[in-house]
Amino acid sequence: MDQDAQKRSAAEAALAYIEPRLTSDTIVGVGTGSTTNFFIDALAGIQHKFDACVSSSEASTERLKGHGIQVLDLNSVDRVEVYVDGADEVNPARQLIKGAGGALTREKIVAASAEEFVCIVDQSKIVDVLGAFPLPVEVIPMARGLVARVLVELGGSPEWRHGYTTDNGNIILDVHGLTITDPAHLESTINDLAGVVTNGIFAAQAADLVLVATPTGVERF
Ligand code: 5RP
Angle, to 10 degrees, between the axis of helix 3-18 and the axis of helix 34-44? Predict the structure, then answer.
């Protein structure tokens, strides 16, 4: 089974997991990325079973609307039943690195709003220690140099994602060379820097359930 087939099977497992809980009032939170795209496409087939979605990016909003699924502003909903999203790395504590697609801030906001965060990945995303994947940090443009210098002091090698602007109008620094043994501490340390919007460590906001697709089936932890 290739990587795309694994992503699709993780997405289908998430659909099977949430489907029994859907009612005509349910709001589903939707992440961003290629694995989530498989989830969006599968969700389209059962759109009569829930009310609407809230989305973590303009790209996902466009895909959802393309399927005829209603997308609501997060501020207009009281309760998000479940949030489904992919990740770039997942450790055994269900802590994540996210943001390769640049949507980390809105992803963290929707994840924080949801009753449950279901993370869907293929097995290549599973690691013992976070950090081999460069850590995305969303930064207010004028603070790029300031934040980059502090990230170097923290032991990383930040690289500006040239030519990329987030949905919020900011830039991304991808930080290489980190070995993240205390994800919660580093998440909070980086988020405290002036000019940082958020970073892609999801430790305060870890997944509640990880569905990981392998060549022999979907496992959960
Ligand atoms: C986007 C993300 C994605 O969830 C993450 O990059 C995984 O993407 P993919 O499913 O394409 O591998 O955090 O900001």
Answer: 50
